[in-house]
Amino acid sequence: MTIRELVVRAVDVPLRRQLSTSGGAIMSVPLLLLDLHTTEGVTGHAYLFCFDALGQRLLRDVLVEAGSLLNDVALDAAAVEAQLDRRFRLVGARGLIGMALAGVDVAVWDALSQAAGLSLARYLGVEPVAVPAYNSNGLGLQGNRGVALEAEELVAEGFTTIKLRLGYADVDRDLEAVEWVRKAVGPEVEILVDYNQLLAPVEARFRCSALDRLGLGWIEEPIVHDDLASCAQLTATTNTPIQIGENFMGPHAVRQALDAHASDLVMFDLQRIGGVSGWLAAARLTANAGIPTSSHLFPEVSVHLLCATPTRDRLEFVDWASPILADPLVVRDGLVAPRDVPGSGVSWDEAAVTRYLV
Is the pTM of this model over 0.70? Predict the structure, then answer.
């Protein structure tokens, strides 16, 4: 099979629940939709999260350039990587360029598994299984009554684990938010928290120590993710598991963090880790280290990849792309199973895409 054309479309999808984090507020999700057409009629799909309108424009420019190089290239992940590496080697396939190329990689794997008549999980040689998921929609920085009400709603959607964003003005406000959520959902629901890299190391040690008594499932990114020495110190002195990894740019970053013992847990972001190819390489590293591995965003594809991850832990469930998907994922009893259809199961609701086109 050979590639005929890469088509890229920009959409801006409103969030069902707006999200305020220590890194800023998210009101809607700017996405890029990739359609990788082959000469044989199979089309691979993928989408990228672009953060804001500027990121969307820059990522789109990279994808247009990448697409111009792929006509008549064999539909093979290694061949596509080699072709794009020649073009971007001097600039460097990191940052936004790396994210854009990861989207191409995902579309290639989707097309390959479709052509084989297998779900992506089965194409990777594993059985699709239901994966524990946590609800990551909402629960941003807001009033205590607001987070309590929203927590009740998230649990009612079929989840037994939810994630709360922290990073209020002081530790007492952080503790209050957790306690309000705990009262709202009861003792059986697991609560995870996320600081989005807000805290300085000293403040992180102080706040994490205070959070230790609350029985949380993990504390995510209390400090900047690539200060590995400080992450390791915090991990060694905190009883609650420390989670980092959504900002790892490729498997090499995973190896560095594992070597530094920077966290108890890790998570991969599909577009930062290097698409399906990068994920598989990174998962071999966490398997060798025996460290639990979760996902960040992109649940439709990530659930397939977690099935192929020996130390799989949790699927982060967000419904951000659901409004433009023909068949969104379904949650049952806190579990999400990959769609057992050829490919990743990602396809577009074209009427919705037209509605949200940028």
Answer: yes
